[in-house]
Amino acid sequence: MSTAYITHPSFLLHDMGPGHPECPQRLTAIHAQFVADGLTASLRPFDAPRATREQVLRAHRAGYIDAVDAASPEVGLAYLDPDTALNPHSMDAVWHAAGALVRATDLVIGGECSNAFCAVRPPGHHAQSDRAMGFCVFNSVAVGVLHALEAHGLTRVAVVDFDVHHGNGTEEMFGGDERVLMVSTFQYPLYPYSGVEPRGPNMHNVPLSEGADGAALRAAVTDVWLPALDEFAPQAIYISAGFDAHRDDPLAGLAFVDADYAWVTRELMQVAARHSQGRIVSTLEGGYALAALGRSAAEHVRELMTPVN
Ligand SMILES: [Zn+2]
User: Fold this and answer.
1) Measured CA angle at 96 (ends 95, 98), to 5 deg
2) Which residues contact 108 (CB under 8 A, 6 or more apart)?
3) Residue 147: is its pLDDT beyond 80?
4) DSSP one-letter string for 165-214
5) Pairwise CA distance, residues 90 & 78, whole Å
6) Which of 72, 93, 159, 186 falls between 20 and 30 A from 275, CA-CA?
7) Separation CA 214–CA 261 (nearest Å)
């Protein structure tokens, strides 16, 4: 058994212009760090397929899918919101990013791999059923969760989101859905300024104040996440792995360090061992300080590659 590493060349062609923090170099930095740390030799690489329309329709409205496809420009950039643009290659990346989560789900639920890390762009957790926002177009983690529920027949799936920004799109899709438990930490107040009033009893959100560090993360996980996860006993765990709560990140003000990502991943590996046959599907969300992003993602994946006992 092994850890799948799922990516696609189209992710490097989605480019929102000079100076945009959500840039192709993010994936290059992650891959370079994996190579430098000797992780790639033991990861199992897979190409992300395009998601099918049926798979994306589980998360997004048909009219929205048609509208973003139609917005794809032949040259230049087309803006879906002030932060989120499409270049001529972007929709290819968007479909493959959703497909990465489908592939990861098939590999992990099917038992071919122990767990998976999807190195994708664009990220997805701000995308709502009918709205692109915050660098996100399709909510890839939601497409994966819904594939696990509706194609693989799972009945309890957990979503863990430690990105510095609240995963408002994921919460919009799953708030009140008894098949899904979501636990999260995020800086508040900060974009998208949501999450303090959870949209359902299945949402366990922990807002953190500016400057909060790994001790605050540990308290949130220990006091809120773990009791909720243990009670729910998920059959699989999905991670919206954003690394922008790192103290080096330019877009936010939390103070996590590299080792915090190893710690939280270890805790989730233990939850998965207790309840989920070890099944974890993780996908990249944010993280904009390139060196810290690479190191933090490597800490995360190294723990995914290390079995529990
Ligand atoms: Zn973020």
Assistant:
1) 70
2) 4, 114, 115, 116, 236, 279, 280, 281
3) yes
4) S--HHHHHHHTT-TTEEEEEEEESS-TT---SS-SSTTEEEEEE-TT-BH
5) 10
6) 186
7) 9
Contacts (Cβ under 8 Å, ≥6 apart) of 231: none
Distance in Å, CA 287 to ligand 1 centroid: 6
Measured CA to CA, the distance from residue 63 to residue 69 in angstroms comes to 10
Q: What residues does 182 pair with on adjacent strands?
A: 159, 203
Annotated active-site residue in 126, 165, 166, 300:
126
CA–CA gap between residue 171 and residue 185 (Å, rounded): 13
pLDDT in tens, 209-246: 999 999 999 999 999 999 999 999 999 999 999 999 99
Spatial CB neighbours of 41, under 8 Å, sequence gap ≥ 6? none
Joined together, the tokens standing for residue 166 give 């609240």
Residue 152 annotated in active site: no
- N residues, the chain: 309
* pLDDT, mean of residues 74-82: 97
Q: How high is the pLDDT of residue 99?
A: 99
State the alpha helices, DSSP H only, in the chain: 25-36, 53-57, 62-71, 90-109, 140-150, 168-174, 214-220, 226-232, 258-275, 290-304
Per cent of the chain over pLDDT 70 is 100
User: From ligand 1's centre to the CA of 51, what distance in Å?
Assistant: 23
Mean pLDDT of all residues in the chain? Answer: 98
pLDDT tens-digit profile of 159-189?
999 999 999 999 999 999 999 999 999 999 9
29 C-alpha to center of ligand 1: Å? 17
